[in-house]
Amino acid sequence: MRSLYLRILLALVGTVVVSLLAFLATFFAMTRPAQVGLIRQFQARRIDDAVATYQRGGKAALSSYLESLDRTWTGATHHLVDARDRDVVSDTDRSALVHAKRGPLGGPPELDGRLVIVEGNGPYRLLILAPPPFNVRSFVPYYLLILAAVALLCWLIALTIVRPIRQLAGAVDRFGSGDLATRISVPRGDEVGDLGRAFNRMAERIETLVTAERRLLQDISHELRSPLARLHLATELGRTAPDRNQALARIQKEADRLTTLVETLIEMTRAEGDPTTRKSQPVPLAALVDDVVQSCELEAQARRCRIVVSGEHGGTVAGDPELLRRAIENILRNAIRYAPDGSDIDVRVDGRQTSTEISVRDGGPGVPEDVIPRLAQPFFRADDSRDSSTGGVGLGLAIAQRAIHLHHGTLSAVNAHPGLRVTLTVPSLYKP
Predict the structure, then answer these.
(1) 110 with 200, same domain?
(2) Are 341 and 215 in the same domain?
(3) What is 85-116 written as a DSSP string?
(4) How many of the other CB atoms lie within 10 Å of CB of 147?
(5) CB within 8 A of 413, min separation 6: which ones?
(6) 26: which residues sit within 8 A by CB, 6+ positions away?
(7) Is the pTM of this model over 0.90?
């Protein structure tokens, strides 16, 4: 049997049926002797009355008395037998009934569905043929009704167990067919729910890895065309150019740009890689920002810019310090690159109850409002002046955004008039 649903259903129903049969067997094995004992206690006094009636009035009086006893117990027949096991009234031999073998489980003998009970040990004994006080056949409809109700309950239990497994099987098929966004909703706290949540975590990791690989291939194929074309052109020109050193310098410049581009793409891919491979530890953001500012001081001084740090004490977050450093450094270097010479770059760190906010503002002209939502897209540049010739490849904010998203945070940008303010918000691990 290959259907898990049928196996569970039959196992539950079979368990109920076996339990019911065991209950009935135990019930009658324990109650039948007690029933017979009650009958004997009730009929013990009738023997003396029957013998006395026979001695006073003979067979006619005894027959009337026995008929009165038959009327008190519907379906029962009473006979008085002597020491030779013969019926006192009809002189019929009753030895076969008197000495009948006991029934199953030690109960009294049965004849044609009636119990055979013999009372008394003297010269006269009272023989009773009576229907059982409890007839199993009369309880069959009730047992069948109970069995049907339990079977319905077993069906519901089997359906509850198998349905989410079938949903999970369908989700696995869709995921295997290429639908990487497939997830399963199993709001249960048992092992089936754990299986569904484990599948969701696995699917999320695989989707992250596959999407990162696809995006990397697309970005490389898109962005390498122009540098490779220029490098090819510089090589051709170098073969015929009168100034070989200038041609080699041009080739070196294009090769350096390719190297920078590839390193940046690799950095971005690592930032969105498998979450299980990242190390997570408490990171004080205020100290991390100070460290990043110190590493960018020389670059800012080359532009005669000053980095001004302000704000309240920053909180502590749980995450990868290297990824957070790269995110903050990319935003700060981006601000230095486009800040006017001799201007200030404001860096503010504000620790709050549940999150820490880091904002970086340059004093430049800002960007058009309609392109702000696209700033974090890979290789996007707001205007022609912000191209690879100015030192960027359009991946700084994209790397920062993906690193912050991995820490369950957000990245936003607004025009500050003057300048552009980029804000990172990361959930805090501890209150500041």
Answers:
(1) no
(2) no
(3) SBBTTT--B-HHHHTPPP-GGG---EETTEEE
(4) 14
(5) 367, 372, 375, 376, 397, 420, 421, 422, 423
(6) none
(7) no
Rounded to 10°, the helix 191-223/225-240 angle is: 30
Q: Are residues 95 and 35 in the same domain?
A: yes
Tell me the DSSP string of 4-48.
Answer: HHHHHHHHHHHHHHHHHHHHHHHHHHHHHHHHHHHHHHHHHHHHH
pLDDT tens digits, residue range 208-253?
Answer: 778 767 766 766 666 666 667 777 777 777 777 677 777 777 778 7
Instruction: Let me know whether 48 and 186 are in one domain.
Output: no
CA 7/CA 3 separation, integer angstroms: 6
Length of the chain in residues, anyone?
A: 432
Quote the CA–CA distance of 260 and 255 in Å, as a whole number. Answer: 9
Task: Check whether residue 126 and residue 177 sit in a common domain.
Answer: no
Structure tokens at 317: 């977050």
Q: Which domain holds residue 33?
A: 4-134
Q: Which of 75, 107, 134 delimits the end of a domain?
A: 134
Establish if 303 belongs to a structural domain: yes
pLDDT (average), residues 262-278: 61
pLDDT in tens, 94-145: 888 888 877 655 566 777 777 788 877 778 888 888 887 656 666 678 778 8
pLDDT, position 360: 92
Percentage of the residues of the chain whose pLDDT score is greater than 70? 78
CA 208 and chain centroid, separation = 21
Contact present, 341 and 379 (Cβ < 8 Å): no
**pLDDT, tens digit (0-9, with 9 covering 90-100), for 148-190:** 887 787 787 777 777 888 888 888 898 888 888 888 887 777 7
Same-domain pairing of 18 and 126: yes
For the chain, what is the domain count? 3
How confident is the model over 302-308, as a mean pLDDT? Answer: 89
Which CATH number does the domain housing residue 162 bear? 1.10.287.130
Measure the CA–CA gap between 25 and 19, rounded to whole angstroms. Answer: 10
Both tokens assigned to 90: 């009809």
> How far is Cα 132 from Cα 425, in angstroms, rounded to an integer?
83
**Residue 22 sits in the same domain as residue 68:** yes
Most distant pair of Cα atoms in the chain: their distance: 157
CATH of the domain at 370: 3.30.565.10
